[in-house]
Amino acid sequence: MTQHVRGATRLAGLVALLAAGAGSASAHVKYVTPGSDPVEVAAFLSAALTDPFNLAVLGAGGVGVAVAGAAYLRFRPLPNDVRAFRRTMASYESLLPWLLRLAVGLPLVGAGFSGYFFSPAVQSSSPVFVRLFGITVGFLLLFGFGTRLVAAVGLGTYLVGLAVEPALVLAFEYVPGFLAIALVGGGRPSADHVVASMAADDRTFYSRIDPFYRRVALPFVERTRHLEAYVPAVLRVGLGLTFVYLGVAQKLMEPGDALAVVAKYDLTAVVPVAPELWVVGAGLTEALVGVLLVAGAFTRAASGVAFLLFTTTLFGLPDDPVLAHISLFGLVSALLVTGGGPLSVDRALSDRGAGDAESDGDASGRSAGA
What's the total number of domains in the chain? Predict the structure, then answer.
């Protein structure tokens, strides 16, 4: 119990870091907005939310989501399919470090070759450093060499850069990504795994000359191993707060830019509703997904919706820099694998369900014995 309390305390520090970054995070719509005249927020929301049709659509959507969630919890449909899906996802957990490394390493390499610093919105005055940093850190993560140290360096560099250039909040997803990689390490396949295997074998020549493995690597891993269980929580909080910000701050609080995007891509031809309903509906949907992820409620379902949102909004926009968003796709995919993890509503419901099942079993046993 003490170990879990200690882990939760440390996680609280990580959550505070995530909240600080996401609270000021700017939205990815900045990459594609054609520019717009300012729109007064109160007037926009008043006009959108006093229209009877808009209210009916939004109300029906909210009720539908609530009913669907309650119905699932009450009736638990397709239990065998759900168990098979969860079992399959859980079988991929050994590949989670690799997935995280790909999710962060690939866009960093792309950023290096493209000449931007984490975000396409940040073009550095030191292009040589930016290119060397992105390519070097990205390739080391992909190769899985010195993974934890490289992730720590990447996180530190991002935070220092954020203090100098606030526009880096556009790439805030790197924070939970780097933190998660620092916790799980390189995994397998990785260069770290190969080196560790050679260093652990007393018969190899390398084990006699490696000064790092037994003195530094093993003690560090032993001290931090229990924190690996909190990787799903780190990812949930980081991505969830980002989604809440994207929905509330980008769309609902900056309706001018959002309306300009709707007009630019003629989105009302895709779904024939008023532009105001498009903006409010998209904002509330993203905010709801974010809240579910932060709470860890229906985590895999919310992650699936997030993946769908990324697919339709990013790949559907011809001039959006998709390469910069690979990290989002990868981190959401990681949550599909891990589920809610500890400190989540999903885990609480699962534990309660297991307790109820055990109680029912005990009661049946006592009845049979009597």
Answer: 1
Query: Do the Cβ atoms of 114 and 120 come closer than 8 Å?
Result: yes
DSSP H helices, 23-116, are 41-49, 52-75, 79-90, 96-114
Closest listed residue to residue 49, CA positions, set 244, 245, 269, 255 = 255
**What's the pLDDT tens digit per position in 135-181?**
999 999 999 999 999 999 999 999 999 899 888 877 889 999 999 99
Please say whether the beta carbons of 183 and 140 come within 8 A.
no
| Owner of token pair 């790092």 | 212
Q: Are 342 and 232 in contact (CB under 8 A)?
A: yes
Q: How far apart are CA 315 and CA 67, in angstroms?
A: 31
- The answer to the question of residue 240 being in a domain is yes
- Please give the Cα distance from 294 to 271 (Å, whole number): 29
Centre a 10 Å sphere on the Cβ of residue 263 and count the other Cβ atoms it contains.
Answer: 14
Q: Is 7 a domain residue? A: no
10 Å Cβ neighbour count for 350? 13
Residue 28 domain-assigned (yes or no)? yes
Report d(CA 203, CA 161) in Å as an integer.
45
Per DSSP, the three-state class of 3 is helix
pTM: 0.82
No. of helices (H) and no. of strands (E), the chain: 18, 0
**The amino acid at 110:** G
Assigned domain for 264 exists:
yes
Interior angle at CA 92, CA 87 and CA 95, nearest 5 = 165
Domain range for 33: 13-356
* 249-268 pLDDT, tens digit each: 878 888 888 888 888 877 88
